[in-house]
Amino acid sequence: MTQNQRQAPYTIGFLGNMALATAVLVFMYATTFNPENVNSFYVMAFLIVMGTVFSMALVGLRFSFDIKRLFESLLWGVLSSLMILLVNQVAPIRIGVGVSPVSEFLYSVLAGAAEEMFFRLWLCAWINQITHSMLLAIGVSSGIWSIYHISMYGANPGVLFIVFLAGCVQGWILLQSRLGDGPIIGHMVVNALATM
Questions:
Q1: Which helix (H) or strand (E) holds 47?
Q2: Rounded to an integer, what distance in angstroms lies between the CA atom of residue 55 and that of residue 118?
Q3: pTM of the model
Q4: What is the pLDDT, as a whole number, of residue 172?
Q5: 196/186 Cα distance (integer angstroms)
Q6: Are 114 and 143 in contact (CB under 8 A)?
Q7: Cα–Cα distances in Å, from 43 out to 88, 111, 143, 148?
């Protein structure tokens, strides 16, 4: 990583902004038309709002609609999706939140954006900023992310290790690119595929 990359602010570009807008629309749709599952969606809304607030306040996250880095964002998103799909091949994980199939799909898309905003764009970037250690930032944020997933997958060490590895991939992509687009898009795509 060059000195310029290290000092460049974390940015969510055009694709990431569109993905977050999609997540907001999903939340609005789901809470309006699927009120029986509204609490699950509120947790994701909380993560996305707090991740955004903390990222902007503590890490200096910027939102940009400049499409100059569009191709780069797309490549990081594809790389993110492929890496997580590869990790998941070792221990396939199926998302199941106990809601209707449509709600499960919508929930998974919202969860991808929310988790990346909170665990990567805030927590990983912030730990990296205060410790200046990519390894520590990626490891700690991925470890906390894995613990968070106990509520979904149980305390199965093998599955949690796969979740940890996926978090490490996402953290590395964020810290290397300084773009939030790749992790957000990759996580949303992989979650959506897991519901099919």
A1: helix 38-54
A2: 8
A3: 0.81
A4: 95
A5: 16
A6: no
A7: 24, 9, 20, 12
Work out whether the CA dihedral 29, 31, 33, 36 comes out positive or negative.
positive
Task: Using DSSP, state whether 11 is helix, strand or coil.
Answer: strand
| CA–CA gap between residue 47 and residue 32 (Å, rounded) | 19
Report how many domains make up the chain: 1
User: Do residues 16 and 185 make contact, with C-beta atoms less than 8 angstroms apart?
Assistant: yes
Reduce the DSSP state of residue 141 to 3 states and report it: helix
| pLDDT-based confidence at residue 149 (cuts at 50, 70, 90) | confident
Q: Which domain holds residue 184?
A: 3-194
* Closest to 119 in 3D by CA, of 45, 170, 181: 170
Q: Encode 158-180: b = buried (16+ Cβ within 10 Å), e = exposed.
A: ebbebbbbbbbbbbbbbbebbbb
Q: What are phi and psi of 195, to 5 degrees?
A: -90, -10
Ramachandran quadrant class, 64 (left: phi over 0; alpha: psi -120 to 50; beta: rest): beta
